[in-house]
Write a structure and sequence with these properties.
Elements: H1 2-11, H2 31-50, E1 56-59, H3 73-84, E2 88-91, H4 100-105, E3 109-110, H5 116-128
Parallel strand pairs: 1-2, 2-3
Helix pairs in contact: 2-3
Length: 138
């Protein structure tokens, strides 16, 4: 689903980067190799989030494990880092109730499945600051 969102954003000339998929532990031969890979991928992705040129993140949160608008621990950590660094944070599909207090207080925006407000916000930022045109938007 993240790939589809990224493609939809690209169609609107919004630069986006999708984190690497690390859900296939069996491909790494051992738990230790999987953990090393996951650690490296997480560091690389967080570095992109923290990059001063990054405007913000969009979280592709859908129902999972019987939880509406699921946000997992890694994603919540990413949101917290983005918030701490003053980045914009958008949730694609609602604010999960278990994090509602924090996310609301942090000014996280719920897109309710509609990318148009995010696209408009991105292009307005680019209009005001031409350096932002080719930069990642997660």
């Amino acid at each position: 689903m993240m790939q589809r969102i990224s493609h939809r954003l690209a169609e609107q000339e919004v630069a986006a980067v999708v984190p690497d998929d690390v859900d296939f532990a069996a491909e790494y031969g051992s738990q230790e190799n999987y953990e090393k890979f996951k650690r490296a991928v997480s560091r690389a992705h967080i570095a992109k989030v923290r990059d001063p040129r990054t405007i913000g993140i969009i979280v592709a949160n859908f129902d999972k494990h019987g939880i509406r608008s699921y946000v997992g621990p890694n994603t919540f950590a990413e949101i917290a880092i983005a918030f701490a660094d003053g980045k914009r944070v958008h949730l694609f599909n609602g604010i999960p109730s278990n994090y509602a207090d924090e996310l609301t207080a942090w000014g996280v925006k719920d897109l309710s499945g509609n990318l148009e407000s995010l696209v408009g916000e991105y292009h307005e930022i680019c209009r005001l600051d031409r350096r932002q045109l080719k930069l990642p938007w997660f």
